[in-house]
Amino acid sequence: MTDAELTLLSLLQEKPCYDHELNKIIEQRGIRRWTAIGSSSMYYVLDKLERQGLVRHQADENGRRLFSISEAGQGVLQTAIADLIGTARAYDRGFEQGLANLSALKKPQILSALLSRQQDLSLQITRLQELYAREKPTLPFALAAMYEHRLHMMEAELAWLKEFIPAWEAQAPDEPEPTIEPYFAPRERQVILPQDPDSVHKVETRAVPPEQRSTPPAMRTEIKPLPSEPDKPVEDA
Fold this sequence. Notes:
By secondary structure, the protein is mainly alpha-helical. It has helices at residues 3-14, 19-28, 39-51, 71-86, 93-100, 107-135, 141-171, and strands spanning 17-18, 55-59, 65-69.
């Protein structure tokens, strides 16, 4: 049975209600803060419970549906509540799974995550305390007990975190600083051309007159004169 189904059966156990009355009670008691039951999904859950024979309704002269819990619904509700109260369950399995695998993280990551949870938990406790103080005068005894139980559980975890974090830091080995090998850039080889006046390999050259300079055979091009065409006679006009 889902939390939404259990909540609606419990409200109808108190008294028969129209659907809009159920929605108003859910809003007034702040039930949506811990139970996923929206305004539209509430009608879907009511129809589902009615198909299962756990609730029934009667339509009035205006077509509004007055819901009430059936005998079968009372039996299912009592069994579910007795099981929830009588069976101890894990408070937060996700957190415990993370604790069991701390070795997958580095020391700074673990410390950051633990401090973040501690800060978030403190903020949640403050908000819940303010909400409980505001709504306590109108809350039924059982609903007030739910608020107090949740606050005690959260405060107990916060106290445990405040002891666990320094104890974990004391036993966690310091991670060695990464060693960085010095890097020496290779010296670039300097090439000095023979034309460089500072080069020790400079070759003395002598000037050659233009008329004595020769062109390599591969670069020689023989220039031949174009054939001349005979002059054409000019005709008289």
